Amino acid sequence: MNSDIEQILITESELQAKIKELGSRIAEDYKDKIPVLIGVLNGAVMFVSDLIRACPIQLNIDFMAVSSYQDSTESSGVVKIIKDLDRNISGRHILIVEDIIDTGLTLSYLLETLQARHPASIKVCALLDKASRRRVNVPIDYLGFQIPDKFVVGYGLDFRDLYRNLPYIGVLKPYLYEGITGDNDI
Ligand SMILES: O=P(O)(O)OC[C@H]1O[C@H](OP(=O)(O)OP(=O)(O)O)[C@H](O)[C@@H]1O
Ligand SMILES: Nc1nc2[nH]cnc2c(=O)[nH]1
């Protein structure tokens, strides 16, 4: 698996140091509230589980699963809810936790969908931002790292549901996905 990685972009210790920093900021900002942290499955699973352990305040967690990439490295632009929240978020302080913001289409859809449920506030925490690829403007309140326009895997991020279990963020060797556009290429 490691031999499919062209370059390690963010090491395990860099990830963990940044998550401690983000956790402290979030804990300070929400110390008088009980926020609901919403992990966006599947990619954010590792990030959200490390982030909540770095956040020593009262909080709730919930998860949504959405997908726009399926088996491709390009967003289809169509976001689909696969699993919705388990709770009513009306009047609650919401923090969306994402692994990566790329085109911004997924987050834009989530913000619109969740805003319609009348939360007290909504903020966004993202581990990675690929700003050069943005197609819609979206706010990021807590950010881990800006990254270049490369397809990355590891620490929750996949290609064809593989590589999520790498403990670092790496760039996948392009020959592994070049020419692949979707399911028909499998
Ligand atoms: O800004 P965007 O271009 O919309 O891309 C960001 C989204 O893409 C990834 O999800 P994906 O659809 O690959 O599902 P996954 O989390 O299950 O891997 C990632 O987890 C974000 O949710
Ligand atoms: N795995 C992975 N998923 C993404 N979704 C949007 N951008 C990316 C990326 O660079 N890697």
From TrEMBL:
Enzyme class, broadest EC rank: transferase
E.C. number: 2.4.2.8
Coiled-coil residue spans: none
Keyword NADP on entry: no
GO molecular function: guanine phosphoribosyltransferase activity; hypoxanthine phosphoribosyltransferase activity; magnesium ion binding; nucleotide binding
Cofactor: Mg(2+)
SUPFAM superfamilies attached to this UniProt entry: PRTase-like
Pfam families: Pribosyltran
Phosphoribosyltransferase domain: residues covered: 14-159
Intracellular or extracellular location(s): Cytoplasm
Keywords tagged on the record: Cytoplasm, Glycosyltransferase, Magnesium, Metal-binding, Nucleotide-binding, Purine salvage, Transferase
Pathway: Purine metabolism; IMP biosynthesis via salvage pathway; IMP from hypoxanthine: step 1/1; Purine metabolism; GMP biosynthesis via salvage pathway; GMP from guanine: step 1/1
Catalysed reactions, semicolon-separated: GMP + diphosphate = guanine + 5-phospho-alpha-D-ribose 1-diphosphate; IMP + diphosphate = hypoxanthine + 5-phospho-alpha-D-ribose 1-diphosphate
CDD domains tied to this protein: PRTases_typeI
Keyword Cytoplasm included in the entry's annotation: yes
GO cellular component, one term: cytosol
A GO biological-process term: IMP salvage
Family under the similarity heading: Belongs to the purine/pyrimidine phosphoribosyltransferase family.
Protein name: Hypoxanthine phosphoribosyltransferase
Provenance organism: Thermobaculum terrenum (strain ATCC BAA-798 / CCMEE 7001 / YNP1)
